[in-house]
Design brief:
transmembrane; membrane; transmembrane helix; mainly alpha
């Protein structure tokens, strides 16, 4: 005869399994706050450039600093804000890369040197 295996419908007398919860859950508000702050950060740095090359270099620098802040937030702070920072930084870098590629394709001259 096979041993009886409980279905879980009725308590078996054993203690319940532990439930693990995230100490700092990611929230939509945190992601939105990180995204909004990073948009402002990238725009302010992008406005420092007087040409496409300047815009691209300032955006690259601002994005690098933003990613360092996101790494610190992942380790010590709110991971939702860090996710918003990382997502918008990637988008900002993509916009700068597309602008550089478009100028390079139309003029035949690499605009960053």
């Amino acid at each position: 005869m096979m041993p009886y295996s409980p279905s879980g419908l009725f308590p078996s007398g054993r203690p319940p399994r532990p439930t693990y919860r995230e100490p700092n859950p990611v929230s939509g508000a945190g992601v939105a706050a990180g995204a909004a702050a990073t948009i402002a950060w990238l725009v302010l740095f992008g406005l420092l450039g007087r040409s496409l090359a300047g815009y691209a270099w300032w955006t690259l620098l601002a994005g690098g600093l933003a990613w360092l802040a996101a790494l610190a937030l992942v380790r010590l702070g709110d991971r939702g804000v860090a996710a918003g920072v990382a997502i918008v930084t990637a988008g900002g870098w993509s916009i700068a890369a597309a602008a550089v590629a478009t100028r390079w394709a139309t003029s035949g001259d690499w605009p960053l040197w």
